[in-house]
């Protein structure tokens, strides 16, 4: 369509513009929303419970259709027919919060192969994608395990592997650390780092401000008066925005304020994002 224009300024892989949405018989959850997922970002979508994170993610992945406005892939509006949705699904994959809402096949390998099989890919290609996805999630040994015998963390990894097997450019995860123990959370973040190193853009919804500060480089904050997007460190230092969003200050930002007040951290220096970084600053 707009070939020359697009080569001049590359369009975002996926973007919502002017999007409004209401569930049946409900008030509008999102109104006139603009949101672009920029290639290569580690993007956190932050908001309190009920602020619309899941709704926004389902709009981005095509599970819900905006009542007004558009969803675009590479700058082109998505057609909600079979072809358009296939194009969307090979660009964007959503991993829902509860793995039990996503897993349905008898074994891990079968579940992860469902998406690629559905794309009509040749068997050899399906096998190689499934192998790659299981390896990426560190669950190759579970390939033949019945899904109902998996632990919660293993089910979560299997659900993510199913999305990764589609080789999406944008991987969207709804509260991926919810229900994981600290070690499970560390493993997940390490996995996301590996996927990002391979070029996958990752968008994560969470209400955990500390996780967002540590993991993301860009933050989109859902507040009652709209979405505020900006670099993570600056956005999560905005007490006014956080208060409006019903969220607290990340501890790393609070610690940075304290260190600066005591002359232990330069005004321009970045604050700590992890206990290890705080310890290093104290040395
Ligand atoms: N299936 C649904 N039907 C009606 N209302 C819903 C449905 N899902 C969510 N909502 C409402 O939409 C709003 C946003 O919900 P949601 O997107 O799930 O927020 P979050 O993921 O940030 O917790 C809430 O007020 C919620 O009650
Ligand atoms: Mg949610």
Automatic annotation (TrEMBL):
The keyword Translocase applies. Residues 14-249 form the ABC transporter domain. It is a peripheral membrane protein. Keywords: ATP-binding, Cell membrane, Membrane, Nucleotide-binding, Translocase, Transport. Gene3D superfamilies: P-loop containing nucleotide triphosphate hydrolases. Its main location: membrane. It is found in: Cell membrane. PROSITE patterns: ABC_TRANSPORTER_2 (PS50893). It comes from the Bacteria. It holds the Pfam family ABC_tran. Probably part of an ABC transporter complex. Responsible for energy coupling to the transport system. NCBIfam families: cbiO. Belongs to the ABC transporter superfamily. This is ABC transporter ATP-binding protein. It comes from Streptomyces olivaceus. The lineage of its organism: Bacteria, Bacillati, Actinomycetota, Actinomycetes, Kitasatosporales.
């Amino acid at each position: 369509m707009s070939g020359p224009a697009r080569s001049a300024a590359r369009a975002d892989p996926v973007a919502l513009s002017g999007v409004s949405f209401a569930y049946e018989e409900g008030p509008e959850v999102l109104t006139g929303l603009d949101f672009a997922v920029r290639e290569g970002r580690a993007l956190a979508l932050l908001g309190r419970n009920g602020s619309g994170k899941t709704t926004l993610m389902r709009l981005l992945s095509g599970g819900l259709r905006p009542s007004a406005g558009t969803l675009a892939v590479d700058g082109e509006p998505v057609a909600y027919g079979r072809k358009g949705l296939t194009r969307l699904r090979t660009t964007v994959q959503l991993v829902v919060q509860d793995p039990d809402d996503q897993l349905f096949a008898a074994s891990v390998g079968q579940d992860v192969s469902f998406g690629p099989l559905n794309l009509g890919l040749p068997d050899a290609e399906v096998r190689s994608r499934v192998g790659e996805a299981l390896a990426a999630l560190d669950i190759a040994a579970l390939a033949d395990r019945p899904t109902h015998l998996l632990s919660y963390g293993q089910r979560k990894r299997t659900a993510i592997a199913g999305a990764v097997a589609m080789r999406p450019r944008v991987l969207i995860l709804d509260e991926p650390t919810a229900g994981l123990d600290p070690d499970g959370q560390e493993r997940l973040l390490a996995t996301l780092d590996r996927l990002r190193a391979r070029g996958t853009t990752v968008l994560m919804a969470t209400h955990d401000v500390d996780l967002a500060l540590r993991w993301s480089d860009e933050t989109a904050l859902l507040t009652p008066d709209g979405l505020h997007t900006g670099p993570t460190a600056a956005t999560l230092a905005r007490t006014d925005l956080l208060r409006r969003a019903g969220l607290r200050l990340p501890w790393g930002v609070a610690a940075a304020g304290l260190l600066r007040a005591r002359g232990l951290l330069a005004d321009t220096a970045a604050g700590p994002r992890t206990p290890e970084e705080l310890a290093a600053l104290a040395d």
